[in-house]
Design a protein that fits this description.
Length: 235
């Protein structure tokens, strides 16, 4: 799909590279170098943007604060966000994902990898829009995994899975957002229906149990070391 993409990046060399790569694929690109200007643009003019690419460290307002605003603003709360950051520690990446980013890429980056992330986010957004248009949709399928939220049942191929409630909620959260890295904090909220304090080991234990029941397909749930987990979207 040809998309409208907003890049918020204060390093001109990087924004130029991103713009050229994206425009070469037929996307419409708008670049803003200041975080505060980006927030004003989003509030006053931004109704058709399909994807946001945000630098973490910006003059005016940080990419983290822009990300949080996008998730609170009604017109943008479901739009995909790719965060670009020179901050490579797991805790920094977790902060970005917890703020609402769908994916992240660290500087310096390979442009082919970045373009692959963009394609994946746009595919996911298109799929979510189809689901939004069809309010009755309750069936989610990724690779060989399938869940039906009306029946509260899950299958791998044609084999129904005997899951605990926590395992079922984890699987639903993954299949509703295929390819999205979910931090342990986010997974806690999905399981508990609200933010509560649990140890990382609790989530890891549930993931271990879910993988065990998936048997030969356990690798469909990928570990993102130091950050969380995801179910890879189909290629």
């Amino acid at each position: 799909m040809n998309a409208n993409i907003l890049i918020v990046e204060d390093e001109k060399d990087i924004s130029d590279i991103l713009s050229l790569q994206l425009q070469a694929k037929g996307h419409n690109v708008h670049v803003i170098a200041d975080g505060s200007e980006a927030l004003e643009h989003i509030q006053n003019n931004d109704h058709q943007t399909d994807l946001y690419i945000l630098d973490r460290m910006l003059p005016g307002t940080s990419g983290l604060e822009i990300c949080k605003f996008l998730r609170m603003f009604k017109k943008t709360k479901n739009r995909p966000i790719l965060m670009v950051t020179a901050m490579t520690r797991p805790d920094d990446i977790i902060d970005g994902l917890d703020a609402g980013a769908d994916d992240y890429i660290t500087k310096p980056f390979d442009t082919t990898v970045l373009m692959a992330r963009v394609r994946a986010l746009l595919r996911r957004a298109e799929s979510l829009q189809v689901s939004e248009d069809n309010k009755e949709a309750s069936l989610y399928t990724v690779n060989q995994l399938k869940v039906d939220t009306n029946q509260c049942k899950a299958w791998i191929e044609d084999r129904e899975l005997d899951l605990t409630l926590s395992e079922y909620k984890l699987l639903v959260s993954f299949l509703k957002q295929p390819g999205k890295v979910l931090t342990r904090n986010q997974l806690v909220e999905f399981i508990q229906d609200g933010p509560v304090h649990v140890t990382d080991r609790t989530i890891d234990t549930h993931i271990f149990g879910l993988r065990k029941k998936l048997k030969d397909y356990s690798k469909l749930i990928e570990t993102i070391r130091g950050i969380g987990y995801r179910v890879a979207s189909e290629s």
